[in-house]
UniProtKB/TrEMBL annotation:
Protein name per Swiss-Prot or TrEMBL: UDP-N-acetyl-D-mannosamine dehydrogenase
Family (UniProt): Belongs to the UDP-glucose/GDP-mannose dehydrogenase family.
Subunit structure: Homotetramer; probably dimer of dimers.
A single MF term (Gene Ontology): oxidoreductase activity, acting on the CH-CH group of donors, NAD or NADP as acceptor
One of the GO biological process terms: polysaccharide biosynthetic process
Species assigned in the record: Methanobrevibacter thaueri
Catalyzed chemical reaction(s): UDP-N-acetyl-alpha-D-mannosamine + 2 NAD(+) + H2O = UDP-N-acetyl-alpha-D-mannosaminouronate + 2 NADH + 3 H(+)
UDP-glucose/GDP-mannose dehydrogenase C-terminal domain boundaries: 304-395
Amino acid sequence: MKVCIIGQGYIGLPTAALFARNHCEVVGVDISEEMIKNLNKGIIHIEEPGISDIIKKAVELKVYKASLTPEKADAFIITVPTPYIVENYSCDLSYVITACESILPYIEKGNTVIIESTIAPMSTDETIKPIFEKAGFTIGEDLFLAHCPERVLPGKIIDELIHNDRIIGGVTPECAKKASEVYGQFVEGDLMLTEAKTAELSKCMENTFRDVNIALANELAKICAEIGVNALDVIEMANKHPRVNLHSPGPGVGGHCLAIDPYFIYAKAPEQAKIIKLARDTNNSMPDFVVENVKKIIPDGKIAVLGVSYKGNTGDDRESPAYEIIAKLSANYEIAIHDPHIENPDFVSLDEATKDANLILVLCDHNEFKNMDYDLISKSMVNPIIFDTKNIIKEVPNEIKLYNYGNLYELN
């Protein structure tokens, strides 16, 4: 089987790697010339365990190549971004539409086209299907169209692409069957065949469920700071209940999924999706909450920001709330940023970030931040104070003051 994958980012590249490892001929398409050159040398641009070795070997064996343009194939998979439109929160399908139009000259009868990009309910039937019908294809007869959303965790993408159950949403039952044959090349989890619109809403609701539950924890943190209760103790005690699993509060929600997908549902039914929108508003308010408490801790000075990735132990900073927090603090504070997982010429080492700092602000739960050399840090700082917004630091020496979501009420 030959597979052409449009988009070589956090989903497209790992997907391409697995098809190539399972004896498929793969063409990975992207618009970045530099990325394409590097991929054809076996050099990848994302931090994700296992991907680099697979791509290097696939390039050597000539079963994977990167290209600026699509090629004829048996199956085409679209894995491009889908941001939301700020004015009305609706799904921006422009990248998906462009990607679909780009493969039209290469599609032949009998091919399968799969949209992996997360899209709003009804998008496949109402927007994507007409693109191919206008080109003369009959969906379900001579071209097979499906929406098959990914469900993976950064840091474990390869394992989860293989072992997680996969939703296969066909425009017709035959479309779902054909798409399942494509993923059958490497997926070991169950292939769940359904309608495209069901697959679309299922994916959006998976991320909405998580967003709403994070919002509940964040709201609890605000309540506890106001009334003088330790939020972390509340969560620990409540979670002793056999049917309760409260999340941990944080500085906000990032990533290309949780921070965006709930809006796709809200835009479709705003009068009905009130909890969904309120959860988004709550999570979006957390950067301001962090900034307000930083100002209570220190009025001015230097802040060492630790971590800008939205998820610990990855270099993925898409939609990270850290950037909004940094931007708002930069007006009144000197900011030094350290993130061991992200290459950025403006970032500095941990020693340089903490030198003469008045506050350490932890915004990401990288393992490197869980057990630091606190003796060295306290000696290099002007004021040894840490504000841990990820609640990962369990104990510090007496000379260091630690704030987290358990004791913010002390600032009121």
